[in-house]
Design goal:
alpha+beta; FAD/NAD(P)-binding domain; 3 domains; 6-stranded mixed sheet
């Protein structure tokens, strides 16, 4: 740990535990600031492994993630050269009709479908280009003393135990974070996790016989069916990653090919020719429905030695598409605080907790809500009317009326303020509705008296 003549404490050796999207991006940010970074990942180097089916849940890159990638010079590649723009939701009705719901009809902003594996590869390669970054794979964290900056790893290939000391430890090791487990042993650490009763399973729509997309490519496709749903995001090879979300009890009921195909015929008939009956049966029975968890905790730091970011700090269900984006925003915020406090981590770490925890809890709640919207509310007439009304007001008064989805996905407004903004809008509409009804009753009464 280095201190200048003003007593400011600057870390000289930093460990990042977790080499996923958030950990590798964080390494890029810290390397740009001249810090010596060592990144430790439990798995093999993802750049040398095959894609693991069934665990990807395609990613929707939005404004917050783009801002973080822009800061390390990677936004242009991921958006312009690689990402597939998605202008809105394409709703598949039970009768086979399609309904387009644009995200932002006023300014035509898009989300971008990106592959998790490819983006991780890009970020690891970018981090590795810095001379002050070292990557270590197949290293499992087996012990830690976060107050003293000590980590103990087992090198999985040699079974060798390695004990190391660091000035700063950053836990970016996902929803089941080993770093967070050590933080949970400390007093005044709040933690909660919620598993929803719904799981997910991935299927695939292949390209057509000419190698082209079988559906309109610039949309997130949704088959909303009330209690459950199916979504599809476009891939760069013109296939679609299809994800089914429904109660585990429902998955368990589909235990024969006859029951499975009867279920698809009743609920997703237009998807059968897209996926193919044989492929539906094969992929479904070769896979297992996987759980979805939401995690909240506080604080995110331990003294001036350790901090958790990304899913380690705030895992969320995937229905707002903000898990990756929120984690990347963590990296950007941490970098901004290092600049603001001149690298003094004794001030940076507690300030990160103070500024971030309310927003992290807010987006976890919003992600839970959006599942209900995607699988059920989008089919309702009241939802369509409210969306069109929001879009109109956004077009007429863009500085004063920003719809909830736009504020979350196409701005950097704090997540907690996105919720407060929506609550204000609901209050305004409710009061306006009451006034309109009262005026209608009043003029109706006058009309009945006068005429």
């Amino acid at each position: 740990m280095e201190s200048n003549r003003n007593g400011i404490t600057k870390p000289s050796k930093v460990a990042i535990v977790g080499g996923g999207l958030v950990g590798s991006l964080c390494a890029c940010f810290l390397a740009k600031r001249g810090l010596n970074v060592e990144l430790y990942e439990y798995r093999n180097d993802i750049r040398k492994t095959e894609l693991v089916k069934g665990r990807s849940i395609n990613l929707a890159l939005s404004n917050r993630g783009r801002a973080a990638l822009r800061a390390v010079g990677l936004e242009s590649h991921m958006v312009r050269e690689y990402g597939i723009p998605m202008a809105g939701r394409m709703i598949h009705k039970l009768n086979g009709n399609l309904q387009e719901l644009l995200y932002d009809p006023r300014t035509n902003k898009n989300l971008y479908s990106v592959g998790r594996k490819y983006l991780n590869e890009v970020l690891l390669t970018a981090a590795e280009k810095y001379d002050n970054v070292k990557l270590f794979f197949n290293h499992k964290l087996i012990n830690a003393n976060l107050q003293d900056g000590k980590l103990v790893f087992r090198q999985m290939e040699t079974d060798q135990t390695i004990e190391l000391n660091f000035d700063l430890i950053i836990g970016a090791d996902g929803a089941f974070s080993a770093i967070r487990k050590h933080m949970m042993k400390m007093p005044l650490f709040d933690f909660s996790q919620t598993y929803i009763e719904h799981g997910y399973m991935e299927l695939c729509i292949p390209p057509d016989s000419e190698g082209k997309f079988q559906m309109e490519s610039n949309y997130l496709h949704i088959w909303p069916r009330g209690e459950f749903m199916m979504i599809a995001l476009p891939n760069q090879d013109h296939s679609w990653t299809v994800t089914m979300f429904m109660p585990f009890a429902k998955f368990a009921m589909l235990d024969t090919t006859e029951k499975l195909m009867d279920f698809f015929q009743k609920n997703f008939p237009d998807a059968i020719p897209l996926i193919g009956e044989d492929r539906i049966i094969k992929d479904f029975f070769n896979a297992t429905a996987l759980p979805l968890v939401s995690i909240k905790c506080k604080p995110y730091h331990v003294g001036n030695r350790a901090i958790i970011i990304g899913d380690a700090a705030h895992a969320m269900v995937p229905f707002y598409g903000q898990g990756m984006n929120a984690g990347m925003e963590d990296c950007l915020l941490l970098d901004q605080l290092l600049e603001e406090y001149n690298m003094n981590i004794s001030k940076v770490l507690p300030e990160f907790t103070r500024r971030r925890h309310e927003d992290a809890h807010a987006i976890c709640d919003l992600a839970m809500y959006n599942y209900i919207e995607m699988r059920d509310l989008v089919n309702r007439f009241t939802y369509i009317i409210r969306k069109k009304f929001d879009d109109f007001l956004f077009w007429a008064f863009p500085m004063y009326w920003v719809p909830l989805y736009n504020s979350v996905s196409f701005s950097t407004m704090r997540y907690s303020l996105c919720i407060k903004n929506r609550q204000w809008q609901d209050k305004v509409l409710k009061q306006t509705s009451i006034i309109v009804v009262l005026f209608a009753l009043f003029f109706g009464f006058l009309y009945s008296i006068l005429f």
